[in-house]
Design a protein that fits this description.
heterodimer; A: about 290 residues; mainly alpha; B: about 400 residues; alpha/beta; Rossmann fold; 3 domains; five-stranded parallel beta sheet; 16 helices; flat
């Protein structure tokens, strides 16, 4: 079987599994699911949320770290988890819970893809940070949705990459046949990651506009200039232009996306410089 | 005068574009499609082409390709409702200077047309290099003034973002009257204000509930790229200044406020010329509001500003300069030292100095031999009348 044919078949398998709802997707940990459920209550008790999150010490430590980095005015007094959650607020806590879960999707022990996945996570955090900042230009007020949409816009890629690894093992070890090359890998991932990302976002019950961004952010939305799709599309192109990306980029396409975005978003040279100034340093601490 | 060619199959678009281009002071000609556009380019030279994509007979990319093939290097701005990256990527490779998506705001057309005609391509690299340090960029007052003029937005000196209104009131009471201040109590109101106005200085409380001040600060910076950003924070045992700088702020102003801190703070962010303003050949010293111990600094700053302002008056060929000290306190030796220095500097540039002030100042000047010789008047009108006599 030729590599091209194999690549087509792999793509068909992925799409079929999605259509049949039989694609194995990462789930939200039960702690995160329960905490998100409680956080839906507008009169949420952060004490109750704290009790839930404490069952996952790693997650609790991450939230405490986020709260204390923003709370430098608190001095050296130790902050409890409920206090930390109160300081962060419900929106930020929700984002952090999803972010902690999403990062695990990008982690891989397989040496073939580990470094690429780490860089893809870095890119996702950069797009999330930029999306939240670009939002300020638009009049749209939902920072949380912008952040999550940017964070998850490529979440389908690590899922597909893991599937391809498994397929590769089966084809090479069980059937003793050659697998597709890296260019074909990239092609399969490129053609399928959005539909997988949408399936994952729906499974995680992400807001509809986040799911829409995952599906549509490859192109701008002319009809609604202030839409989150445009914000994420522009942020994605700026992150790539700044060099925060995994793999190779089509420089001409990225330049075109930046140029279109400057008009749609209303971003002049000064604004772009402000958006990208120190971006690598600003997001560096958020990788770990 | 620059002449611009607008190529679009829509008459209404051509009409709108033509009007806006003429309003900028340029001449404009029109073409309905790529064929007509090429014909016009064959007849004469243009300084810029505004080119649609979708047109009958010969579309925008086709006309552009033909132009470049014929060696025509006239700058082109794509003015189109097409936003597909493959289409735009294609024309970028052929060679365009910028891109405007329809419908467009007049400001965008104006800014991009002027930018291209002035030789600054919108397609050039504008990204801040990631290797630059992440330290907050220093505010740029000159660029801020230019931005203020180009956007036509209301200018306000200071924006305070703090959920406690008492903080706004307290600060207002401690600032000189000539500084304008807006106070908002939420992140959303801050973003809204920053979209509508231009600020010189933005103060952001680090304790607003449910708000990450670093995130909000970064969002506001996108809207106010020339403003200085200062965190409002409580004193702790930590190195708060390092912490706020790590969060992207230029500085910190501690709460609760003290007048000393406010005065120090203002001296860092507000132009010395605020203390001495010029109206033709009349230089007016601003009032002083602060503790008597700060008066040395007040006169020091006026003294630092004086030469620059005096030179502007001299450059305007005035023979007399009137120094209006009516609003200033009669501050003993300090004011006399300044007046003597001012008179000497005026003499050096060939001008005569007249001092206008209060009776207390006149009494002070008359009690010292050195300053008795200076020309003193009770009002600017008297000083001007004497100069004309």
């Amino acid at each position: 079987m030729s590599a091209e044919r194999l690549s087509e078949q792999l793509e068909q398998i992925v799409l079929k599994r999605i259509a049949e709802d039989s694609l194995v997707l990462p789930t939200l940990p039960s702690v995160v699911t329960k905490a998100l459920e409680v956080l839906k209550d507008p009169d949420v008790s952060f004490k109750q949320v704290g009790v839930i999150i404490e069952r996952d010490p790693v997650l609790a430590a991450r939230l405490l770290r986020s709260a204390t980095s923003a709370a430098f005015s608190a001095g050296t007094r130790k902050v409890s988890l409920p206090e930390a959650l109160t300081r962060l607020g419900a929106k930020a806590v929700r984002s952090l819970l999803v972010e902690a879960t999403a990062q695990k999707v990008f982690l891989s022990r397989d040496p073939k893809i580990a470094e690429s996945m780490k860089r893809l996570w870095q890119h996702s955090v950069a797009v999330a940070t930029l999306s939240r900042d670009v939002l300020a230009l638009s009049g749209n007020t939902d920072s949380e949705a912008a952040y999550l949409a940017g964070l998850l816009h490529d979440v389908g890629k690590p899922v597909i990459a893991s599937m391809l690894l498994e397929f590769e093992r089966q084809v090479t070890e069980v059937y003793n046949r050659p697998f597709i090359d890296s260019a074909e890998w990239i092609g399969v991932i490129g053609r399928t990651h959005r539909v997988v990302g949408v399936a994952l976002a729906e499974k995680w019950q992400m807001p509809e506009q986040v799911t829409r961004c995952i599906r549509e952010c490859a192109e701008y939305d002319n009809a609604d200039r202030a839409s989150l799709v445009n914000i994420v599309c522009f942020s994605n192109s700026l992150a790539k232009k700044t060099g925060i990306y995994a793999g190779t980029i089509d420089a001409d396409e990225v330049d075109a996306l930046v140029m279109i975005g400057r008009s749609i978003i209303g971003a002049n040279d000064e604004i772009i410089k402000t958006l990208t100034r120190g971006l690598k340093e600003r997001v560096a601490g958020l990788y770990d | 005068m620059a002449t611009i060619l607008t190529v679009d199959d829509s008459r209404s678009v051509r009409t709108i574009v033509s009007k806006q281009v003429r309003d900028l002071g340029f001449e404009v000609e029109e073409a309905e499609d790529g064929v007509q556009g090429l014909a016009k380019l064959g007849e004469r030279e243009y300084d810029l082409v505004l080119l649609d994509v979708t047109m009958p007979n010969l579309d925008g990319p086709g006309m552009l390709a033909k132009m470049r093939e014929l060696g025509n290097t006239t700058p082109v701005i794509m003015l189109t409702s097409e936003s597909k990256r493959s289409v735009v990527s294609g024309v970028m490779k052929t060679g365009i200077s910028d891109y405007i998506l329809k419908p467009f705001k007049p400001e965008e057309l104006r800014n991009k047309v002027l930018s291209v005609l002035q030789g600054e391509s919108g397609a050039e690299e504008v990204l801040a290099v990631s290797a630059e340090p992440a330290a907050p960029a220093a505010p740029d007052p000159a660029a801020a003034a230019a931005a203020r003029e180009s956007t036509g937005k209301q200018f306000v000196d200071i924006l305070v973002v703090d959920d406690m209104e008492n903080v706004h009131k307290k600060l207002r009471g401690m600032l000189p009257e000539h500084l304008s201040l807006n106070g908002v109590t939420s992140a959303q109101a801050a973003l809204q204000s920053c979209r509508q106005k231009v600020f010189k200085l933005v103060l952001v409380d680090t304790e607003i509930p449910d708000v990450d001040s670093a995130v909000l600060g970064q969002q506001l910076k996108v809207l106010q790229p020339h403003a200085a950003f200062v965190a409002l924070a409580l004193r702790t045992t930590n190195d708060v200044l390092s912490e706020v700088r790590g969060q992207g702020f230029n500085n910190v102003l501690f709460k609760p406020f003290s007048q000393d801190n406010i005065d120090d703070f203002l001296s860092q962010y507000f132009d010395n010329q605020d203390l001495l303003s010029a109206d033709e050949n009349v230089l007016r010293a601003a009032g002083f509001s602060g503790r008597p111990e700060r008066m040395e600094r007040y006169y020091g700053r006026i003294g630092e500003t004086f030469p620059q302002v005096l030179n502007k008056v001299a450059a305007a060929c005035f023979e007399d300069v009137v120094l209006d000290m009516t609003a200033s306190p009669a501050g003993g030796e300090r004011v006399l030292k300044f007046l003597l220095s001012a008179a000497e500097q005026a003499k050096q540039v060939g001008m005569r100095l007249a001092v206008v002030g209060t009776p207390e100042l006149q009494k002070l000047m008359n009690s010292y031999t050195e300053t008795q010789e200076l020309h003193f008047f009770g009002s600017v009108q008297e000083a001007r009348a004497a100069a004309e006599a």
